[in-house]
Amino acid sequence: MKSVKVKSPATVANLVCGFDILGLCLDNPCDEFTLSLSDEVGVTIENIDDYDLPTDATKNVSGVALLKMLDQEKDIKGFHLISKKIIKPGSGIGSSAASAAGVVVAANHLLGNKYSKQQLVDFAMYGEEIASGAKHADNIAPAIFGGITLIRSNHPLDIISIDYPELFLTILHPQIEVKTADARNILPKEIPLINAVTQWANVAGLVTGFMQHDYDLISRSLEDVIVEPYRSTLIPHFYEVKNACKESGALGGGISGSGPSMFMLSKTAEIAVSVELAMKGVYGKTGIEFHTHISKVNKNGVSLK
Ligand code: HSE
Predict the structure, then answer these.
(1) Domain segments of the chain: what residues?
(2) Parallel, antiparallel, or unpaired: how do β-strands 78-84 and 42-47 relate?
(3) Consecutive H or E run containing 105
(4) What is the Å distance from ligand 1's center to 116 Cα?
(5) Phi and psi at residue 223, in whole multiples of 5°?
(6) In CATH, what class is 3-163?
(7) Residues in the chain where the model's pLDDT stays below 70
(8) Pocket probe mutation, ligand 1, options 11, 12, 15, 19, max atoms within 8 Å of Cβ
């Protein structure tokens, strides 16, 4: 039986000011998926991790994305998926996107790479939708394209890869649960024009800063006046962490996706290590369990293992 094994990376969505439109691919952690063509109709799933995710394909993020692809295929009956999740669901670093993106890239290999990356993002978004209640691509696009991506439009999809300078990310993952659907529901439906002006100026500044490798401009633009004031209330000691990290030399950062993870961008590996110590300094005193890790930007996205 033909089969393919992929590594599917974690991602950071929003990048502070770019709610639902900016995302970045991490080197680690990565999920692992083995996908085979199957003689059984539909998608069968075998989980080899401790997360107890559904094996019913219609309720499983990977399963839903694969079923969407199967809808287009007349010549194959089904897929069998062996799923090893490493990225903890609900961590805020794109666990559901890794599930959806990894399997559609694997399926594309089995089908002779007939689909474009943009088409794969489209399939994967159906999986993301059942996890978060919204069809957003800001984790899926960087997982599939690698690097930093801009979603200029969801309908029709328009994804742009953005150049960037060397960057190191330090991630703090408090072991608390924040559901993406809840973190979306607390956001206002309308915003004052003055905040919109500040936000789109920062998005333009951040994208320009990445493309021109201008670290000062990146740093100045990492400001969110729309989403962070609401979501920061869901992450204990958010501003203490943010201030300590910036004092340690981080360019800036904030909530990773919908949280609870936080991320900070740094210019060098040494600064990223100081930032990690700053995170540990704040969270070590809170009594809340947490993990930290450092990653570079992954320019490849989902890759064959
Ligand atoms: N852009 C999404 C949000 C990412 O912030 O709700 C969630 O993973």
Answers:
(1) 3-163, 168-296
(2) parallel
(3) helix 95-110
(4) 24
(5) -140, 135
(6) alpha beta
(7) 1
(8) 19
**Distance separating alpha carbons of residues 89 and 205, to the nearest angstrom:** 32
Q: What is the pLDDT of residue 138?
A: 96
d(CA 150, CA 156) in angstroms, rounded, equals 14
Query: Do 3-163 and 168-296 fold alike per CATH?
Result: no
Q: Which residues line ligand 1 (CB under 6 A)?
A: 13-14, 19-20, 132, 136, 138-139, 180, 183-184, 257-258
Atom of ligand 1 nearest to the CA of 94: 8
**Superfamily classification of domain 168-296:** GHMP kinase, C-terminal domain (3.30.70.890)
Closest CA to 209 of 223, 198, 193, 220: 220
- Residue 289's identity, in one-letter code, is E
* pLDDT of amino acid 38: 94
